[in-house]
Structures are given as C-alpha cells and as structure tokens.
C-alpha cells in the first residue's frame, strides 16, 4: 500500500511539473525571456530560459504538503523551503539581469546558514569527526559547493533533469532500504518526478532551459537530501550517488585553476561538454550520464548492505572510466 502511495504522489508531481513547465514556457515566450547563443553555448537557437519557475513552484508546494501530512517530518523543514524560495527569487533576478559572483555567493550563504541553524543539534554530518561548530561550518561549505557545481553542470539539454531524477530516486531508495523517515523517501520521489516532468520539455533538442531559477534551488534541495543521508550515518551513499557531478565539476575546476583561468567565468570545459564538442550529440552524452547514475545507485545500495568501502572503490573506478570516455569519445556517425 505504501509503495502505491509513493507511485501516486510521484505521478501527480510529474504531471504538475510538466504542466507548470509548459505554462512557464508560454510566459517566457510571451515576455521574450530567451537564452541567446554565445561562443560558449551548446545550443544554436534562442531558447526560453526559466523553466525552473514551474518546477520549483511545484516542488515547494509538494514538499510543504509532505512536511504537513507525512509522519516524522524533518526539523526545520519550513525554513528549508523558505530558503529555497529565497534562492529561487535571487536566481530569477540573476537570470534576468545578472548578478556578480560575490552577490550570488552572499545570498546563497544566507540560505545555507539559515537551513543549517534549523538542523537538529545532534545531526552530525561528519559523524563526530569534528566538533559540532566545525561540523556545521564544513557542512555549509560543502553545501555551497554542491549547489554551485549543480548549476555549473547544467550545460546541455537533458543533463540536469536526468541527474536530478537519479539523485532523487537514489535517495528515496536508500531511505526505504535502511528505514529512514518516510518524509525523506517522499521528498526524493517527488523531486525525481518533478525532474521527469521537466524533461518532457528539456529533452534534446530542448524547448526550454531550467535557468538559475531552477538549478540553484534544485541543487540546494538535493544537497539537503544528501546531507540528511550523511547525518543519519549513510555518508558513503551520500557521496556515491552524486559522484559523477562531483568529479566532473571538481576536476574541471582544479584543471582551470592550474591553467590560470578565472574559475568563476562561464566556460565549456566540463567533460560532458568536451564530449559534445568532439562529436557526441546531447542525447548520447545524457544517456552516458544516465547509465553512470544507474550504476552509482546500484553501488549506493551495495553500501547500504554493509559494504561501504567496496562500494566507494567501485564508484571511483566507474566515474574515472566515464570521465576518460567523455574526454576522448568515439565520434558518432553522421
């Protein structure tokens, strides 16, 4: 019965996100809010940007209902949603007129700090390795990095929708298997379903882009799900599930840093972008990312059965192999 409820809630969320994204696309067309191609773009035609307006609106409503009606709702859930709404508003302004990296980071820090203050005092993400204050500081820095890398990685059609769906489903599955609060599973299922509803519009060739108004609060909410897993003792699973995004963005950042480039500027140097520049289509690269994430979900399940170090080793090997493949892909036939 409970699995049927998860399924029905997921279907309702998927349909709502599909409709919400379609309505957002209509409004963005009407008011000419387009992402116009530039030398670093992966698209060639002006495309509406701001599909996150529909996705995030649906998620905030659905998660609000989860926090109201599902038992064992997380402490600080309403502050989390308020912070996500705040980030969406700031990011929408950024989409429309642009904000400096310093201002963006300042507002993101406010949101992350507010959400962390609302965390239970005994929720230690690093499992007692650090004193409580240092644990919170380290968690906040990682959360900031995650929501920004999630935004950085939103560079080709379909990739963020697939990543969001995989992370949401993976968190929900792990939470079910290890017996965590049902609210976590519902949040995971619904964020995955919302991503699938968005993918109807964003699958290559995309009819609409997520925009910062979607990718920043999505990264924030997904980061919270992963932190929740880690704080409940499942830190390996919380590391394995997003490992492809973590590796691609972090390795690219370090590579650009050593090359003397300004790391906060827009670029097209991620491994998945190199693959598209060297002949692979957007859909082919997204299928590679999807297959990688399915493997990572399986390895996270392995970790939850009592084999965390073996899971982490295989996950590192898998992601390393995928990065090599994306950096040197076989060209597709015309």
Give a quick set of tags describing it.
334 residues, mainly alpha, two-stranded antiparallel ribbon, 13 helices, 2 strands, 72% helix, globular
Describe the protein.
The structure is a single chain. The termini are far apart. Helix 2 packs antiparallel against helix 3, helix 2 packs antiparallel against helix 7 and helix 12 runs antiparallel to helix 13. The mean pLDDT is 93. The chain has a domain of 233 residues. It is mainly α and 334 residues long. 72% of the residues lie in helices and 1% in strands. It is built from 13 helices and two strands. It has a two-stranded antiparallel sheet.
Please estimate the helix content: over 70%
Backbone structural class:
mainly alpha
Q: If you compute it from the alpha carbons, what radius of gyration comes out, rounded to the nearest whole angstrom?
A: 19 Å
Number of strands: 2
What share of residues are in beta strands?
A: under 5%
The sequence of SSEs as H and E is HEEHHHHHHHHHHHH
Shape: globular
Low-pLDDT parts are: none
How many individual helices? 13
Sheet of most strands: 2 strands, antiparallel
How widely separated are the two ends?
A: 49 Å
Give the spatial strand order of the biggest sheet: 1-2
């Amino acid at each position: 019965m409970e699995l049927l409820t998860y399924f029905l809630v997921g279907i309702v969320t998927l349909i709502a996100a599909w409709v919400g994204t379609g309505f957002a696309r209509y409004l963005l067309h009407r008011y000419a809010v387009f992402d116009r191609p530039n030398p670093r773009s992966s698209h060639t035609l002006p495309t509406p940007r701001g599909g996150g307006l529909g996705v995030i609106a649906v998620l905030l409503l659905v998660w609000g209902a989860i926090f109201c009606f599902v038992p064992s709702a997380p402490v600080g859930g309403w502050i989390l949603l308020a912070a996500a709404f705040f980030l969406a508003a700031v990011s929408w302004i950024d989409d429309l007129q642009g904000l400096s990296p310093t201002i963006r980071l300042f507002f993101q820090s406010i949101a992350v700090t507010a959400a962390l203050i609302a965390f239970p005092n005994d929720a230690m993400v690093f499992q007692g390795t650090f004193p409580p204050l240092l644990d919170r500081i380290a968690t906040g820095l990682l959360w900031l990095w995650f929501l920004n890398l999630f935004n950085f990685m939103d560079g080709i059609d379909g990739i963020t929708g697939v990543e969001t769906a995989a992370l949401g489903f993976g968190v929900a599955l792990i939470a079910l298997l290890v017996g965590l609060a049902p609210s976590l599973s519902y949040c995971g299922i619904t964020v995955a379903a919302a991503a699938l509803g968005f993918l109807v519009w964003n699958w290559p060739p995309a009819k609409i882009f997520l925009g910062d108004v979607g990718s920043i609060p999505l990264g924030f909410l997904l980061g919270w799900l992963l932190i929740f897993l880690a704080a409940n003792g499942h830190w390996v699973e919380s590391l394995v599930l997003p490992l492809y995004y973590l590796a691609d963005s972090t390795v690219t950042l370090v590579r650009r840093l050593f090359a003397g480039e300004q790391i906060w500027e827009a670029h097209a140097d991620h491994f998945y972008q190199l693959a598209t520049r060297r002949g692979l289509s957007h859909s082919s690269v997204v299928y590679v990312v999807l297959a990688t994430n399915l493997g990572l979900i399986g390895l996270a399940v392995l970790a939850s059965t009592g084999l965390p170090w073996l899971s982490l080793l295989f996950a590192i090997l898998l992601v390393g192999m995928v990065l090599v493949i994306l950096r040197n892909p076989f060209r597709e036939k015309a």
